Amino acid sequence: MNRWMWVGLLLLCCSGQLRAAEQIEQMDDVVVTATRTSSDLAHIGGATVTVITAADIEARHLTSVVDVLNTVPGLQISSIGGPLDNIEHIEVVRGAMSVLYGSNATAGVINIITKSGSATATGYVGSEFGSYNTCKCYGGISGSVGVSDFSLSLSHLNSDGYSLANADNNDIPHAGNTSEDDGWHNTTFSGKVTVDVCSTTSVTAIVRYVDADMDGDDWSWGGYAGDRFGFVGWEQLPIPDGLKKQSTETEKLFGRVNLHSQLFDDRLISNLDYKYARQERDSVDNDGDDLSDFLGKSDEWSWQGTFKVSPIDSVTAGIGYLKESSDTSSTAYQDMETVSYWMQNQLIIGGLDVVAGVRFDDHDRFGGKTTWRVAPAYHFVTTGTTLRSSYATGFRSPSLFELYSVYGNKDLDPEKNKSFDVGIDQSLFSEKLNIGVTYFWMKFQDRIAWDSTRIIPGNAWPGGYGQFDGESDMQGVELFAKWQIVEALLLSTDYTYTDTQDPDGARMVRRPLNKVHVGVSYAFNTAGHIVLDGYWYDERDTTVSATNAHGDAVTELDDYFLVNLAANYDVTDMLRIYARVDNLFDEHYEEAWSYATPGQSFYVGAKLTF
After folding, report:
1. What is the DSSP letter of 504?
2. Which tens digits make up the pLDDT trace of 98-147?
3. Total H helices, total E strands in the chain
4. What is the pLDDT of residue 29?
5. CB burial readout 505-514, b (16+ within 10 A) else e
6. Strand pairing of 489-501 and 514-524?
7. Cβ proximity of 186 and 222 under 8 Å
8. Nearest to 338, CA basis, from 316, 369, 304, 317
9. Secondary structure (3-state) at 421
10. To which H or E segment does residue 325 belong?
11. For 74, phi and psi rounded to 5 degrees?
């Protein structure tokens, strides 16, 4: 299977099916994802939220959303991901959040917050160069004009890349069939404009456009990757001297218009929303012939109102309509519609904070489903202790891509899940030391996932979406500690233990049992900053289709240890220079059997602010 060909529309101010963990940074800030209302972190009930700020991203000089999410304890994503442009911060909420966000939030929500304009006009330009002949140029401007403010950004990235078929894996055939570099290119535009209609009402428009192209490699029926395979009679063999044009071009457009009103002395907050998303994906094979195409669209209308019943009680209610459509080379035009109703109550009495909600989704193909969630927390102000917990149910209908793409399965049914977590957070020494522990479990019924053994007629390699009939389980423990030793020095560490089990008793593929992170952040001479991060990932089970060159089954991916280093220095108030080294010790590892990952990589850049 070519894992680069089915990278989904992951993060464009939307939710995703991903699991988060403890807070990366304690913030006295406002978040919107946990309750779908503006709330400070101390009043979001029992939700566990990770907030990744623009400062966190800038300190590590990360280049993609996926790079940022992989810094979150317990979360690991294997794809290149889109650039980090015009992002104010990213919020990640754990556990089933279907009550507020519907079908795609059965395991958590990831929300990317776009930067707003500022009263003072500012701009920036920058460029970055590094390994694999990588070049990135970017720029942006923000400010205000009269009753409106704006924030715009544009970036372009080119990289020659490396062979996705792993040339460092001695257990698969080489002989020139793992030597071709697979590059990627990405152009991204992001914009946000807000206009104050009057003192109580504003209109905000957000747009994000991505044009990306990624080269790919073949996956053999023998169970490993290579630049190119072909048939000689009935036998499939490597053909390293043949054409190697395989690639996927993706074009994404996301738009949102929001009418925000604060009425009756701010007792009622109203949000009328329209969202539009379009993704077109076209793939060609090694000969340059059309392999597959997919065009997906969604239109979503919603209204939500939050009424402050009293200083300690708020009620939120909403209604939404979602229409999704797809058109592919393998299936004619398809669409489906969902009408949703939800209600939530948040009650704060002293140190007790309880959030509870219920939702009903009426799907035109899969019928009606009710989900609910309750998330209490108690804050002991005198000791700096917080006890929190949440229990929720989730419901996910298969997407049109999972149903009707070249990898789709028209027989898929919705999956259901339940999630529970309980934890304690403790701050010590005037909040300079923060520690916490969380126990979590999730149970999926009829989980939808990639089935590497599925044979789809007409596809060049096995693999497609399938249903794991029965109950799949995930449970574990997460711990974190953050110690601000002095103002300039921060130490952080976290550990995640995750035990998973599919209905057949096997572990879920590519989920490490243990993951450890240790980080050091040091500021020097008021103008410099260094961040060092080390990650250890335990062994992981691989797909049942994975074999080596001798036809022997490969059941595990080796553990690995990564160290990343980033530094920047402000030469002047306007000019910042920076550098980073990814995979400092050149660790050879795989996140998927026989697919390569970046080796030791060096990057330098400069950013001019005006």
Report:
1. T
2. 899 988 788 888 888 888 888 889 999 999 999 999 999 999 999 999 99
3. 4, 33
4. 62
5. eebbbbbbbe
6. antiparallel
7. no
8. 369
9. strand
10. strand 313-328
11. 80, 0
